[in-house]
Amino acid sequence: MPKIAVTRWIPDEAVRVLESVGEVAVSPADRPLTPEELREFVSGSAAVVSMLHDRIDSTVAEAAGPGLKVVANVAVGYDNVDVAAMTERGVVVANTPGVLTDATADLTFGLLLALTRRLGEGERLVRSGRPWSFHLGFLLGSGLQGTTLGIVGLGQIGRAVAERAAAFGMRIVYSGRSRKADFAGEFVPFEEVLRRSDFVSLHCPLTPDTRHLIDAAALRAMKPGAYLVNTTRGPVVDESALADALEAGEIAGAALDVFEAEPDVEPRLLGRENVVLTPHLGSATVETRTAMAVLAARNVASVLAGAEPLTEVSA
Length: 315
Ligand code: GLV
Ligand code: GLV
What we know:
It comes from Amycolatopsis jiangsuensis. The protein contains 12 helices and 13 strands. By secondary structure, it is of the alpha/beta class. The chain folds into 2 domains: 3-99 and 286-313, NAD(P)-binding Rossmann-like Domain (Rossmann fold, 3-Layer(aba) Sandwich), CATH 3.40.50; 101-277, Rossmann fold, CATH 3.40.50.720. Strands 8-7-6-9-10-11-12 form a 7-stranded parallel beta sheet, with helices on both faces. The longest helix has 19 residues, at 286-304. The radius of gyration is 21 Å and the shape is globular. Bound molecules: glyoxylic acid (2 copies). One glyoxylic acid binds at residues 153, 155, 176-177, 204.
């Protein structure tokens, strides 16, 4: 039986799919493996089921050995995988698109509402035991209706966010590589998304082109009353520039579910009331995480059976 290395816990349903095609080893560590541990762990594997915190590069492929056929990343994003290096070795790379679209779009709205209705601030106040009482001017936020949502990167998740935004009565502008003929929002240059939006929500993948897409200049281009929401990958935002912009009052607030040096967070963000911080929860529902792991396992099963993967990515 071919060896299948799973770099961290996955739901049983997915383990069972893998067990039908190989001998499964799941890392027992309740943390990401170090690069050395990862190389040792994958040694002799035909398949690696990887997490977004694993850096899968040529050294990992080399450590796995010439029998490596497939890397199945349990995430839609695959910036952690050197796809070109895998392709060069004939190793198939797969991700998990589609199954986490709704969960991530839902969380995006949770963050939008947390920002505009000051949920974190209110929660901290109640827990603090400090006195408070209802009054007409107490912890006022702002509504979403009639505001403009700017979507950066109109993939499946961006579209699902747009559907929700329509239900909240928001206008939609979007930027990306191309206009989508079947989508009702207004396609505008990235700079115009920044200039016009009350909320800028990031849904582009992390690539060399999108690293620090939100830098000091981009933040300055946003409206002073605007909010930034990041549920994609931390390095799309220059976190230090974001802290500067918040300190200078250049934007109204930000919600981050992902971080530049995850799990570390720019310390200047931690004490700010107008910042919402969540620990990479975009896809974190039982159903979604199970579906992601099962899809990754099916990708492995297909490739090891000599068939096409279900959701392959290419460099
Ligand atoms: C999660 O962040 C993913 O890319 O699936
Ligand atoms: C670019 O960000 C795109 O998704 O088109």
